[in-house]
Model the fold of this input.
Amino acid sequence: MENAIQVSDVVKAYRSSAGEFIAVDHLSLDIAHGEFVAVVGRSGSGKTTLLNLLAGIDRPTSGTVRVAAADLGTLSESGLAAWRGSNVGLVFQFFQLLPTLTVIENVMLPMDFAKKIPIGDRSDRAQDLLERVGVGDQADKVPATLSGGQQQRAAIARALANDPPILLADEPTGNLDSTTADAVLELFADLNADGQTIVVVTHERDIRSIVGREVTLIDGRVVTDESAPAGAPA
Amino acid sequence: MTSLLTVKLGRDLRASWSRFLMMAIAIAVSLTAFGAVLFAWAASGRATRSAYSSTQPASATILLDRSIDTERMAQIVAEVRRQPGVVEATGRTQFTSEVEVNGQPREIPLQVFVAAPGDPMRMAKFFMEQRSWPPSAGEVFIGRDSLPLLGVMVGDTVTVEAPSGERMRLRVADSVYDPSLSPSPQEQTGRAYLSTASLATSEGRVDLDQLKIQVAGPGQVTPSRDRDAIVAVASDVGDWLQRERGLAIREIQVPTPYAHPHQWQADALLGSLLAGGAAALLLSSILVATMLNNLFTQQIPQIGIMKAIGARSVHIRRLYLAMTLLVAVGATLLALGPAILLGRVAVENFLGFLGIEPVSLGPPWWTYVVVLAVGLGLPPSLALIPVVKASRITVRAAIDHHGLGSMPVAGTGVLARLSLIRRLDRGLLMALRNTIRRPARFVLSVGLLATAGTVFVAGMSLSTGVEAIAEEQKEQRTWDVDVQLASPASVDRITTILEGVPGISRVEGFNVAETGVAGPGQIPVTRTYPDQGHGRVSVTAIPADATMFTPPKMLEGRWLNPGETGAVVLNQVTRKNTVPDIQAGDTVQLIVGGRTTTWRVVGLAEERQGGGGGVYATAEGFADATGQRPRVNQLRIATNSHDEQTRQAVADAVNENLIDARVEVKSAASISRSEAISEGHLGPVILILLGIALPLGVVGAIGLAATMTANILDRTREFGVMHAIGALPKAVRRIVVAEGVFLAITSCLVAVIPALTLTAVLGAGLGNLFFSAPLPFRVSLLAVGIWIALVILGAVLATDAAATRASRLTVREALAYL
Done:
């Protein structure tokens, strides 16, 4: 069976006035279905770039990225958008909920875009997802009235809207206090326990206790790729 | 568009309602102006064409040098009807007289139109309100708009002097609507309609001197619209009359076919207004496109998120196009009512200006289609580029978007050096740099404001230019009383008669004689209308010692030398209308009092409205050509004190003294009447020019407010950072307001050269259109002052609300801003 994610000899270089900057340097990485992987490293190590490559937000300078059975390099911007809507759930550090939609509407919006879920089922599914992440009672509020933790839970619910096989999270706890961050990580663990493939980019040192695998980057290269003791592939 | 995007659209509109309202107002204001003018133009054009055509105006009027009796005229008419190209003909005459109403003299002269009782009234018609043609002997019909001007009512008695010199008492039997003439109040002339039966002298003889014809193309019965064809047929008829019937022709009058005497003015005015409205509309649409672009820029993070969760470009494009369309729909709905209302008011005013009663004030259906198409189509069309740009943004670009101008621009380097100046306020320096952080927005905002300022100042400056003409004319009118004599008299005799009149400081006499101008061997052809005023040419004989005449500006050649004979100067209007190819040094013929005289054109002069009759000769030259001693029929009298009371008293006294001395007086009136006529013609022009400037001012002010709001929204995070590092709300506010003021000042500086250029270009265009000469170049300092004050005050007010909002943002709010 094909891995959920296959990154083969990928280079991502940025050009700037100071010259060329290699963010990801000949990186290869395979992630199997159901894995819970943490990508760690210092600032500038290339972990967010790697996540953006996996989400089709960035395109590699060279090498191939296959995610959910799609070669992202062959897809157009519009094709990537459609692919993302069905195959990837994204969670951001600053939650990034749309401010003028209510929480439940934010969760339903990806369903409208992807059209995978029948119209009549979308509201119930969104409510179920919000219940699952623990903010069902906040469904009809606008994001600005929620706490940071609640907003991040809502953002996770939105990421799960179309039941994507892969969840990608960029510093999902970076803007939360430690108690709330723990709760969010617990939520990820629960999702992974239900079979969700998850890749988390994080600074958190103690994430090893939750994830199944920890990939450490330095200067855009994988320096360690270890299975964590507490984590296990589904 | 998905239902949730519809929800988002609704909430985005609600969240930024003030910006959307500004956009809608900007478009609505200019669409109102554009729509109102279009409605007015279409409706008034339709009414004017219909009313003027209903009079079946003559294609040409052939003026006989000597009148002929009605029987002979009837024979001639019958023969002329058989001439090739002539489909209708009739004989008429007209004269101007002083008038008394119930024995009380009036200052206003009366222009009397005369037709035979048996005139079939198939052409050059007018419409009686109660009666039908002809009035009985001893009766007169008065033009409806002349009734209040003369202070006369149906049933009153008026006394007029017939061309024979006989005074006739006539009962006003009915009023007449004559849409072929310009309104009486504008011309300060009453109109009356008589049958020859009322004019018959004691010998029973009435003479007619106008042969009116309608000309049609071969095989056609509808009068021709081709003036050249009309001139050709009328000239053939004139030649035939001279050759076969031995009648001398003084002039052939061919006004523009199917065009009311004031039609071109109305068209020019409405055309100028429509152009102004269209310019305002275009500017407001650009403004809206800019504002939407700002809004899209602000929404880039949201677009990024939507794309990250599966939205495609088409979703985003539909969302923002719908947003633009909603603004356009709102603006169009806002504008439609006021445009219709203003259009109706404008139609009424314009038709009043033309002396035409509207059958309907409603505009034609196609004008609604145009307004709706423009209102609904223009903003989305102009917003298409920013919409497509926003919809195509990638998630990566959206993530990288950090608000206002994070990348340095070229100007920043220059401005960075300003920090080397000691004691320069750091807040002001920051404001200055911020204004150019987004060069495209800076250029658009400054461009928009500068354009509005340019048009505002140019519009007001043109008004000043128009007013300058009136002032110029007023300055040149160094006399107080105009006297017109029925026939020329010796200047010495007149001076002697008036010697005893108190209040007079100086009297000067001129001889003004109607004339026809033509090339050698040709019949003079003019564009004179039936009122004998519009397009009329006359030669003014100027005495050598004249002080109450200012020689006009020369375009070519020179002015007349004192006592020069055989030399004339033509103004540019007369040249254009009669002998367009003539140049200084060429020879022309003037037909004066039945004599064909030959003259050398020594110069071509430029005169704006209110100039003389268009041809100038010296008194000696005129006497020499006509074979008479120098005589005068127009007096210019200066009074000791130039107040209206003295003017009136002197006019009355002069009238009495001349009548007592058996000198027939056509009119003796204060020059206030001439000024009233001048104002009647210039007033609407000034109003129109201001009408163009004001909507643009409103659009410009909204543009400034919109730009500043966008700038602040873009930099919300930046303000949060400033607060975080200790900036007081007051400091943030000061920076923001200073940015607005910098922007306003820059726009004023940018507008200087375009404003001067536009004033000169429009002054030449409008001046040539209205006055046959460029307007005097005047820059309205008042307009400059008003605009600078308005734009700076507007900048302060427009930025204050946004600045206050920015200054109150908490650090957390600012940093969490999406």
In short: The beta strands of chain A are 5-16, 19-31, 36-41, 62-67, 70-71, 88-91, 166-170, 197-202, 213-218, 221-227. The first strand of chain A starts at residue 5 and ends at 16. The first helix of chain A runs from residue 47 to 54.
